[in-house]
Amino acid sequence: MGSFSDKLHEAEGELAGFFRGAFREGEKLLQDLSNLAEMVKKEIAAWIARPEVLRMLLEDLQRLRPNLVVGQKAFVTKYADVLEVLKANGNFTVASIYADKMRRTSGDFILGMEDTPQYRREAGILHAAIHPDDFARIREFDRESTEAIITQALPQGRMDVAGGLFRQVPARLVSRYFGVPGPDEPTQMRWMRTIFWEIFLNFSNDPQVAQAAEQSSAEMKAYLGSWIMARKALMAQGRAPDDFLTRLLALQAQPETRLDDEGVGRNVGGVVVGAVDTTCTAASQALDELLKRPDQLEGARQAALAGNDALFSAYVFEALRFHPLNPLLLRHCEKDYTLAAGTPRQALIPAGSEVFAMTLGGMMDPEVFPHPEEFRTDRPYESYIIFGYGQHRCFGEPINRVQVPALLKSVVALKGLRRAPGEEGQIHYDGPFPDRLVVEFDGR
Ligand code: HEM
Predict the structure, then answer these.
(1) Are strands 73-76 and 354-357 parallel, antiparallel or unpaired?
(2) 383 φ, ψ to 5°?
(3) What is the mean pLDDT of the segment spanning 153-179?
(4) CB 405, CB 309: distance < 8 Å
(5) What is the pLDDT of residues 320-329, one digit of tens each?
(6) Could you identify the atom of ligand 1 that is nearest to the CA of residue 86?
(7) CB 364 within 8 A of CB 59
(8) Are 135 and 402 in contact (CB under 8 A)?
(9) Is 281 in the pocket of ligand 1 (CB under 6 A)?
(10) 180 lines ligand 1 (CB under 6 A)
């Protein structure tokens, strides 16, 4: 699994021993837990790859110190408190976390904005460009594209699902549905990955990651400028495809939904950079969790074969609870805030703190997810916080509620689906992104 895994193994032993020791040896060692914040940020890629360690630590924290505040770092681990942080968006803000990096890459974008008039206007316009009948269209596109890739792999009886399917199909959806194919598929995929990595996962400000993203952003901006002009020409001739880009440009006709061309470019750019590796990661990690559990894999396969989409989706989202895309959401605390006021968990978070809202912890909270260690398909979808919560809850959620199960369904339905032997059959990460996961099968 390369160097990230090695780093994780080091971090794992060091941190787990240290953490348990801290609780044994007493209060003063809790101070050192601020290291946890730095380690999580520095090694985020490794933590994403192996959530078991973080789950174990979160379980301890929930029992012993559910809201741990050390200096200007706050770890929030219970479901109710994670939601309280994400709901109190006037106090727990995002701009200082995302906005600078967005400005330097894809441009100003809603996820880097507080609940301002500009946020509401732009979020409203983006939602207006998604139509209710799109979801059926997306499901069909994903089904066809997935089936075509599987058909090609049938003679070999094996395929790389992460790099060869779960990344390819969302990239093609970005071309066809969002209207941004890029000059070619590898370039488009490179842009999506490098820019996303920098904005959302380069917590340690690795200069190589920043540089790759800046290069990609310069290329993408130039491309989008001329692509928008070309699209307008097609629209004038009545030959434009009906996609997200054409719709945003059509919305320019009314003043209330008009974004200028620069605004269309940064919004389309902002949406598509979050649309490929997110989906690929979710699909790869959900499949990996199912492969770890033969009974659940068989249950999901039966649901897929019976065409029971609701049950199949329940398998997928429960699998993601164990290994979500984001184990945490970061926020900045503007003013002193008493969290969980009046409960035994009450904690004062000082102004200026960095707040780790541990969504992974929330989804392991026994008060909301009884017997959290059990894989169950009867948990209400609404309780999952895989797609975040509150003002910034994922814009792509309705798409991915359809897309992630659609990507997995034909794969899980394959006869004798199993991991390839050895390392190939484990997820190989490129930094924080699943890049390769080889499975074998006996046929359709
Ligand atoms: C399975 C794949 C995905 C997962 C798990 C996911 C998860 C998330 C999460 C957790 C957030 C909240 C971030 C925060 O509060 O700090 C978020 C926000 C967002 N996501 Fe996704 N995402 C996925 C795919 C997508 C896709 C495909 C798109 C685009 C079509 C997208 C667009 C966005 C946008 C625009 C926001 C910001 C919304 C706002 O600020 O109002 N995401 N996503």
Answers:
(1) parallel
(2) -85, -15
(3) 98
(4) yes
(5) 999 999 899 9
(6) 15
(7) yes
(8) yes
(9) no
(10) no
